[in-house]
Specification:
about 100 residues; alpha+beta; three-stranded antiparallel sheet; two-stranded antiparallel ribbon; about 15% strand; globular
Amino acid sequence: MELMNILGDSGHHFQLEISIENGEEAAAGFLSSHDGRTIEAWAERFKVSIFSSVPEVPDQGNIELSSQSGHAFLISTEWFEESTTAVMEELEALLNLPQN
């Protein structure tokens, strides 16, 4: 939920993709209502703060995202093949592109 709030607070529209591994039949109504739904941003475009949880040695930390309104989300990088710094650069390019 916090990631969704960060995106919406920062002016990003996004689409939900929901996958249920067990019990998909029981969740069919939920999936039909929510899977593939586009969520419109509820704020103007603002910068998403992206930083390492260990600023002294960025590649040893996880990635922390936050919005100007105070929402925060932690991305664990424990199993990533790329360095934390490389992933942060990709997120920066994706989330903080200048508007046309």
